[in-house]
Amino acid sequence: MDSSVGFLSNVATLVTVFMFLCPFNECRTALQTKTVSPSFNILPYVTTAMTSTLWFTYGMMTDQPPLIRVNSIGIVLEIAYSAVFFTVARTNKNAKILVGALAFTFSVLALTYIVEPPELAVQLLGLLCCSVNIICFASPLTAVKEVIRTKSTEALPPLVLQLAMFLTPLLWYFYAYLIDDSFVAVPNGLGALLGVVQLYLRYKYTQRKSRNDFIPLGA
Fold it and tell me: Residues near 184 by Cβ (< 8 Å), separated by ≥ 6?
């Protein structure tokens, strides 16, 4: 059991760190050019920094080194991304997003130290982490809706990132299953299912496009 948990957590950590590093080039370009694309949205970076902080705290309170390790990396990278992008795209909207995320995060952290007994604080934090993760599925669900509406895969992320977005929650789900942690298992199980749906849609509409682009000889 211990070896399986260790293996899963190590692989899950590697895949998750890969996902954390995906925005690095975009961030570096923004820093060099001092510009961002018109469609840029700082919310995903701020949200990921917030959720990483909450899961890091949950890992500390439940003594789960894998959660502590991976989310400490996430906190550093996502805060760096958020800081760079906010510096480049300093708008009232982005400022409100940052202030809101900071207020929510510090309120939750303060609550975990106020609530007694500690077991109740862990349950409360786990429930909040789980809920926030599920709410974050709104963006991928929007992409799924857009793919179905347009019958095009343009709204989906690149295939490599899409595979990582499927493998990451799948690995963390099995890790959570082995240690019997429903707060980690539920959002990651849902995330893996959403990843399956997105991969299926990519296959379905890529195949359809290939058939539509086929021109018979002699036509």
Answer: 67, 130, 172, 173, 175, 176
pLDDT digits (tens, 9 = 90+) for 29-71: 999 999 888 778 898 899 999 999 999 999 999 999 999 999 9
Give the integer Cα–Cα distance in Å for 194 and 151: 18
Burial letters for 118-137: b for 16+ Cβ neighbours within 10 Å, e otherwise?
A: eeebbeebbebbbebbeebe
For the ranges 68-82, 109-123, 139-153, which has the lowest average pLDDT?
A: 139-153
Of the candidates 125, 115, 50, the residue with the CA atom closest to the CA atom of residue 81? 50
Helix residue ranges, H only, the chain:
2-21, 24-33, 43-62, 65-88, 92-114, 118-135, 138-150, 159-179, 182-213
Quick count: other Cβ atoms within 10 Å of Cβ 107?
9
Tell me: the pLDDT tens digits for 189-208?
Answer: 999 999 898 889 888 888 76
